[in-house]
Write a structure and sequence with these properties.
The complex is a heterodimer. By secondary structure, chain A is of the alpha+beta class. Among the domains of chain A are: about 140 residues, Dipeptide-binding Protein, Domain 1 (Dipeptide-binding Protein, domain 1, Alpha-Beta Complex), CATH 3.90.76; about 220 residues, Roll (Dipeptide-binding Protein, domain 3), CATH 3.10.105.10. Helices cover about 30% and strands about 25% of the residues of chain A. In chain A, the strands form 5 sheets. In chain A, strands 11, 12, 13, 14, 18, 19, 20 and 21 form an 8-stranded mixed beta sheet that branches. Chain A has a 4-stranded mixed beta sheet with strand order 1-10-9-8, covered by helices on one side. In chain A, α14 packs antiparallel against α15. By secondary structure, chain B is mainly alpha-helical. Chain B is about 75% helix and about 0% strand. Chain B has 15 helices and no strands. Chain B is globular. The relative contact order of chain B is 0.14. The chains are: A alpha+beta, B mainly alpha. Chains A and B meet through β10, α6, α12 and β20 of A and α2, α3, α5 and α7 of B.
Chain lengths: ~525, ~325
Amino acid sequence: MRHGGAERLPLHVLLIFFLCFPVLAADYGDTYVDASIGDATVLNPVLSGDSASNDIIGLVYNGLVKYDKGLQIVGDLAASYEIKRGGLEIIFHLRRNVRWHDGQPFTADDVLFTYEKLRDPKVQTPYADQFADVQSVTAPDPYTVRVLYKQPFAPGLISWGIGIVARHVYKDGDFNTHPANRRPIGTGPYRFNEWKTDQYIRLDANPDSFEGRPYFDRYIYRIIPDQAVQFMEMRNQSIDNINLTPDQFKAYDAIFQNHERYRYPAFKYVYMGFNLRHPLFKDVRVRRAMALAIDRDSIVKGILLGLGQPISGPFAVSSWAYDKTVAPLPYDSSAARRLLRDAGWIPDAQGHLYKDGKPFSFTLMTNQGNKVRELCVEIIQQQLAALGIDVQVRVIEWSTFLKEYVDKKNFDAVVLGWSTGRDPDHYGIWHSSQQGPGQYNFCSYANPDVDRLLVEGRRTFDFKKREAIYHQIHARIAADVPYVFLYCPDELQAIHKRIQGPDVAPAGLGWNFHEWWVPKDKQRYKTEMVP
Amino acid sequence: MISFLTRRLLQLIPTLFGISIISFFLMQLAPGGPVDQLTDLNPQITPAAKEHIREEMGLNRPIFVQYGVWLKHLVTLDFGRSFKDHRPVTEKIRERLPATLLLNVLSIGLTLIIALPLGFYSGLRANSFFDKSLTAFVFLGFSMPTYVLALALMLIFGLHLGWLPMSGLTSLDWNEHASWAARSLDMARHLILPVIVLSVTSLAGLSRYARSSMLEVIHQDYIRTAIAKGLTPWRVYGVHAVRNALLPIITLLGLMLPDLIGGGVIIETLFAYPGMGRLGYDAILSRDYNLIMALTVFSAVLTVLGNLAADVAYAWADPRIRTQS
């Protein structure tokens, strides 16, 4: 009998499949309510640098290219692109029949205009340097853009992912203070509707979007500056999306009865950086010993409640540049002791390390206001104390920390984090030429091989070759231990359960946001779509 | 009276000038600048780009030159533009004023309505059980951290009972509300919790003033005379004593004028309320110099005007002072 039942099962399954698929067609309607700690500042892709503005800009504007779910570069406003002469020339073939939200056609002229503004010295853009190697940008016809580079610059390709702004919108008036910076007109899946400063930003579905009309009628970006209040608003179902702290993520399941929790590795990592000009840290054996003596697993378990992972090198774990074959240094205090002895550090009767009559003592700094980093510093202090190293801890206000200590190289060691872009070109962080005041190689790392590889990584477009270059960079920097690479935290998010479509990928969670939808019977907000 | 007013108003000019100089230079002492928010440790943005923006904003000039430029614009009432979003700072302040005034007028009003009668009554019944329990209550409110009270009320009335919205000033579908009445009701529901929290935490000060002022008055000779004349207790305390006990409160009210536009950062942050407190706090954090200066000048003007108004009102209310001047 059982056997017979099992035989009939495929039929049932087939039947269910046939019945379900037509029903599974996505429904339109409903509102997606997002929550943010801070408000946007300027809704102009050329000017904005903050994440809140970029959240909105990402929905209202399109770039020529974008990252797909696997972090490969694909066309966006450009239907396709060609890389010629080893990267000296990039040709973008634009989509036809794309319209701005005000109905005007989008053409190559708008791309030229955006580029002009990026290079205009009067425009207060933080992105000008990404286009420094561009020789010329021309439009042979209204749907083709030809970019010539002075030298190949691989990260340059994704820099064309910057939102393209419309010439006809910005042609009159000052670009920096233009009213359209608060009432943007883009090409994206959502149209701007209203911005109530520090309250909410409202967007409406763009029925003419070239990706197809998004399923949500409306998108609301609520500004709720306090995280505890956001958490209560989530429980109250008044917001559909929230970023969580590790302890919120680990709260009782009952709290998340209406929300689904998601976690994925963030595009950032936390490290302890040495001042390599400091006599204590000149010897790689000493740095390696300290890396061996810090138990990353206990940091991840203790501070992040396990919601992250130890790393071995200078990239976020979900980056293709991260070389998974390089294992994080193990926690091995006896190996650390041996290395320190080799380097001349001998413990006295109390176990404190001395060399030439001097104790092993230094100050470890981090910035105030980041609880996770403050705890991290304390754990490191304890773990190094077990080795006989005396660590003084200083926690300093952010601006003072940067201006007075980091920028002036006035530190022994720091705990900090990098939020990196998706492209692994971290030239500014690791190249030996970037050690000046205010530059990002404040640890004064210099390795001629890495310098060469960094430049090569910028000149190479072929993905496989480029990947190999960054894997080499990863291995070499890991061997030099200029930082103790600590961990890559997880991005923690909860999304309302009625919403269909969220999908975790290397690109994160929101990469397919325009495909998210809510079945008619579960929609919470009744809205009339204004045609 | 007119010459007195003119003299006082003229005195304001050097005071405000001094305030502006001190705040301008003090503000520059804090490390960091307006461009940092955008660019600090952001590997996608090069230090060269940051320097370029600083130059474009005129932030690389000597501080006294920057002050001179600022002052020159101020003469024409131009407070400049925000370094953060390039909007005129007066526009940013104007946008916040209605919501701020609404919250503060309501909460100061509620505080007055509750604190004055309670304070007067406990002055009359000094050291009674009522007096002592009131003292305990107002000090509890005074010493309770705002966020504890606010979060507790949100949890009870917002989340568990579901009677009131927790944060924001309006509902998401506010625009669809047809009538003016429906919109006002919606806004009123959003205001209940912040107004209560603000009032409870500020009851203590005012009610203690009212209490001690009443205590002083009821021991005066004219009160004894009034009782001796055989007036009813209502006439004695409710009219004669209260009127005199109100006099010092007038000064307090003048001093509260800047509170009307000043906001509580904590309360506005918790309730996601779009008020001046958050504007000022964000301005300081992001070193938005022009906005900080505009807010400073604005509240300085209100403070000195409040003092002046208190003096004038005092003279108007108290014949003894009027005849002296």
